[in-house]
Design brief:
Structural class: alpha+beta
Number of strands: 8
Number of helices: 22
Strand order of the largest sheet: 6-5-7-8
Largest sheet: 4 strands, mixed
Distance between the termini: 68 Å
Helix content: 40-55%
Radius of gyration: 23 Å
């Protein structure tokens, strides 16, 4: 045989695909903490989506591609009257929950927002439930939704622990597409082999670049990229369930596989099996709609506000000590061109609460920025320094700190206290303090969209773990129709 002819022996599936499929098919979740956290995550994620509906730049992207389209048993988009096919519904739900950068976060070698997967999970669950009822079968329950959330969180988060996609220029929403594809295929009745096939399709798509997340190109695509990923996941799951084959060595194939093409020839590393770890340790964004590496810095700025609010013009410099990841992705100077640019700028996200005592979504809008030149004046006075201890403890599995420290120096030689915060209020170490605040955040977000009676009904159901888990998905989604 000629040396120039390749052997066309179809390989066994990559172990990464097999491990994910085995986890989705076989792992039994017996963690009460994981289900309780998933319930809180559901509340928080839905609330973020409802709040985003106040912003026209978000809502202009929602709804059917062909106006007036009627979809039998279509999936509902919370807070709207849209009833869409599950692919577009996943896009819309994923878009609204991510729009304000206010849903949960996972920080490791790779960053991300695992509740982005709710776009695919809710869309599929609502559509399938209505389909089942029409066929005389039982609908899915919210227990099924919480289970899918725990598993999607785990897939995305465990891959992210040791594998940095950002360091090779790739966007973390790839992991949303992978995790959503796995759980969506399972929810649609896929076998182990079909889940492997669908996962191969997800990896074949490769990854979008991180360009839209970073200076000087930061823009609103980062707010709908997760919706795009969840939508694609549902589409790939559907393709597979219609009989599309998989591509077993999608990761490891020499020259043409993901490792060689997109990951500099390096294979993924894993330090723990899939279980409940990620959901139990997820980081909630409770205090501020801001990129998570800045959460403790913004909290420090709020604490310093009473000291500096009447002396802003007397400030000589503002010194912030932070961790390496924050410097790499959100420290920037120069003009900030849009809200997406501002909510990924460490200096902006600390200047606003330093001057005004809080940081809310409206503070990123052009009108607020233009009306308050003090923000850019404070930004110009900031010095950003890496604290090696913060960087080290950021990556330690038992700590996962997100530390920042801030101190303000005045022209007369005096200075404020140095405020150091190692863990944000949404961290597992501050759960007791954080959950009541998370519930308050959810109630406030509900009130932006629903009348008071409906708000109370939704909140009461979401507070009751057993009752929520037993609720049919279609009934739950009906409560969220405006």
């Amino acid at each position: 045989m000629s040396a120039n002819v390749e052997l066309n022996n179809r390989p066994e599936p990559d172990q990464v695909l097999v491990d994910i499929a085995n986890y989705v098919c076989d792992y039994e979740i017996d963690s009460t903490e994981a289900y309780d956290t998933a319930r809180n995550c559901l509340m928080d994620t839905l609330g973020c989506g409802l709040l985003a509906l106040r912003f026209p730049e978000c809502t202009k992207l929602l709804g059917p591609l062909a106006e007036g389209t009627i979809v039998p048993n279509g999936a509902r988009v919370p807070g709207t009257q849209f009833r869409l096919d599950p692919v577009k519904a996943a896009w819309d739900i994923g878009c609204i929950v991510r729009w304000l950068d206010y849903n949960d976060t996972w920080l490791a070698a790779e960053w991300g927002h695992p509740s982005d997967n709710l776009g695919a999970i809710l869309a599929i669950a609502d559509y399938l439930s209505q389909q089942n009822i029409a066929a005389g079968k039982a609908p899915l329950t919210m227990r099924d939704v919480l289970t899918a959330m725990i598993k999607a969180h785990e897939i995305q988060g465990v891959i992210a622990l040791e594998n940095s996609f950002n360091r090779v220029g790739l966007c973390h929403v790839l992991l949303v597409r992978v995790a959503s594809t796995a759980v969506a295929t399972k929810m649609m009745g896929g076998s182990r082999e079909q889940i492997i096939d669908a996962l191969s399709q997800a990896w074949l798509d490769g990854s979008s670049l991180r360009t839209y997340r970073h200076s000087p190109n930061a823009g609103p695509r980062k707010s709908w990229a997760a919706g795009d990923a969840t939508s694609r996941a549902v589409r790939l799951a559907d393709f597979t369930m219609r009989g599309e084959i998989g591509y077993p060595s999608v990761l490891s194939a020499p020259t043409w596989g993901f490792y060689d093409v997109s990951f500099k020839g390096k294979e993924f590393e894993f330090t723990r099996p899939y279980g409940n770890y990620v959901m139990e340790n997820i980081l909630f964004k409770i205090s501020f709609p801001a990129e998570f590496h800045s959460q403790t810095a913004a909290e420090a700025a709020v604490r310093l506000h009473p000291t500096v609010k009447d002396r802003l013009d007397d400030i000589e410099k503002i010194v912030i000590h932070t961790h390496e990841s924050a410097i790499r992705i959100i420290s920037k100077s120069g003009p900030l061109n849009n809200p997406a640019d501002r909510d990924h700028c460490l200096q902006y996200m600390t200047a606003v609460p330093l001057a005004f005592g809080n940081l809310v979504a409206e503070h990123y809008e052009d009108s607020f920025h233009e009306a308050n030149p003090i923000i850019d004046q404070l930004r110009e006075k900031m010095e950003i320094h890496e604290n090696p201890t913060y960087t080290k403890e950021y990556l330690e599995p038992e700590k996962r700190s997100i530390a920042n420290a801030m101190q303000v120096y005045f022209k007369d030689g005096s200075s404020s206290d140095k405020i150091e915060i190692n863990y944000p209020v949404g961290h597992r170490r501050r759960r007791e303090e954080g959950i009541p605040l998370l519930e308050d955040k959810f109630k406030a977000n509900l009130a932006t969209r629903f009348p008071a009676k409906r708000c109370k009904e939704i909140f009461a159901l979401c507070k009751d773990q057993a009752k929520l888990e037993a609720t049919p998905v279609n009934e739950f989604m009906e409560m969220l129709v405006i």
